[in-house]
Design goal:
single chain; 209 residues; mainly alpha; two-stranded parallel sheet; 8 helices; 11% strand; elongated
C-alpha cells in the first residue's frame, strides 16, 4: 500500500484503491442474489442451501463483514468523480477507501444464517437434498460431535445401504458422501474465521454518500 501511495504521488496520476471486506452476492443489481462465483462463501452457502451442510463452527453473535458486489461496483463508480474533484482542489491523486459495513451496520453470522434460511424457505433449490438448516456451534468439540451424528454417520449408512440398490442409488449415495466430506473440509477451513471478528472503519466511504 505504501508503494502505491508513493507511486501515485510521484506520477500524479489519479488512483482509486477500494478495499472490500467479503464480497457477497448482489443486493439489487442486476438482480437480487446474483453472483458469478461459487468460491469461498458462495460455495459455502450453495451447499448449505441444498441441505447438505447443516452444522457450522461459528459464533452467531460475531460480525461477518459481507458487502454485496453491486455496492462495491457502485462505490467504484462514485469514487471516480470524487477523486477528480479531490485532485483538482488539493492536488492529492490518491483515494483509499474501504467497502465494508462492520463499523456502521455490521451483520452478524447469526443474522446471515437466519436470512439465508428464510430465503431458502421462499425460494428453495430444485435439487435440494433436505430442508436447509444452519445450526451454529461455538466450540470445536460441539461442532465435531454434531457433524458426525447428523452428517457423517448418516452418509456412511446410506453409502453402504446403496450397495444393494441400483446404479443410480449407488451413484447418488457416493456423491452425497463426497459432499459431506467436502463440508467437513469447509468447516475446518472457516472455523477460525467464523469464530473471530474484524471491524473495518470506513470514513472515506461515508464521504462519498
Amino acid at each position: 500500500m505504501l508503494f502505491i501511495e508513493q507511486k501515485a504521488q510521484t506520477t500524479k496520476v489519479p488512483l482509486v484503491v477500494i478495499r472490500p471486506s467479503i464480497i457477497a452476492a448482489s443486493f439489487a443489481e442486476p438482480v437480487p442474489g446474483w453472483t458469478d462465483s461459487i468460491g469461498l462463501l458462495g460455495g459455502f452457502y450453495t451447499i448449505a442451501g441444498h441441505g447438505i451442510l447443516r452444522d457450522l463452527p461459528l459464533n452467531p453473535k460475531l460480525i461477518g463483514d459481507q458487502i454485496p458486489v453491486d455496492f462495491v461496483s457502485n462505490q467504484l463508480l462514485v469514487s471516480i468523480p470524487f477523486l477528480v474533484k479531490q485532485f483538482r482542489e488539493t492536488n492529492n491523486p490518491l483515494l483509499i477507501t474501504h467497502s465494508c459495513s462492520s463499523s456502521t451496520n455490521g451483520l452478524t453470522w447469526g443474522d446471515t444464517t437466519s436470512i439465508l434460511v428464510k430465503h431458502w424457505e421462499r425460494d428453495p433449490y430444485e435439487k435440494a437434498v433436505m430442508k436447509p438448516v444452519m445450526r451454529a456451534h461455538t466450540t470445536d468439540k460441539s461442532w465435531q460431535l454434531a457433524f458426525k451424528l447428523n452428517s457423517e454417520i448418516p452418509s456412511k449408512a446410506l453409502y453402504y445401504i446403496s450397495k444393494v440398490g441400483n446404479k443410480k442409488m449407488k451413484s447418488d449415495a457416493k456423491e452425497f458422501r463426497e459432499c459431506v466430506k467436502k463440508c467437513k473440509e469447509i468447516g475446518l477451513q472457516f472455523a477460525y474465521f467464523m469464530n473471530n471478528e474484524w471491524i473495518f472503519d470506513n470514513p472515506s466511504t461515508i464521504k462519498l454518500a
